[in-house]
């Protein structure tokens, strides 16, 4: 599960960068939803983390 979250975070950030740089006029501020979701997932991963056995 942790590895899957890493992949999703990287894909969302890459999509945000691509949309922000390449399609700024077309998509506008809607592309920022991707970075918000990526940050939420990153915070979730940091908070839950691995617990000691």
Strand content: under 5%
Poorly predicted runs are none
State the major sheet: none
Order of helices and strands: HHH
Secondary structure tally: strands = 0
Tally of contiguous helical segments: 3
State the assembly state of the protein chains.
single chain
Fraction of helical residues: over 70%
How many structural domains are formed by the residues? 1
- What best-fitting shape do the alpha-carbon axes yield? elongated
Which class do the helix and strand fractions yield?
mainly alpha
Radius of gyration over C-alpha positions, nearest whole angstrom:
13 Å
Give the end-to-end Cα distance, rounded to a whole number of Å.
17 Å
Average pLDDT figure = 76
Describe this structure in words.
This protein is mostly helical and 53 residues long. The chain has one domain. The chain has three helices and no strands. Helix 1 runs antiparallel to helix 3. It starts with a helix and ends in a 5-residue tail after the last helix. The model has no long low-confidence stretch (mean pLDDT 76).
Characteristics:
elongated; mainly alpha; 53 residues
């Amino acid at each position: 599960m942790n590895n899957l979250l890493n992949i999703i975070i990287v894909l969302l950030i890459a999509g945000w960068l691509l949309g922000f740089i390449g399609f700024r006029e077309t998509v506008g501020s809607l592309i920022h939803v991707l970075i918000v979701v990526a940050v939420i997932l990153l915070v979730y991963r940091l908070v839950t983390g691995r617990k000691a056995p």
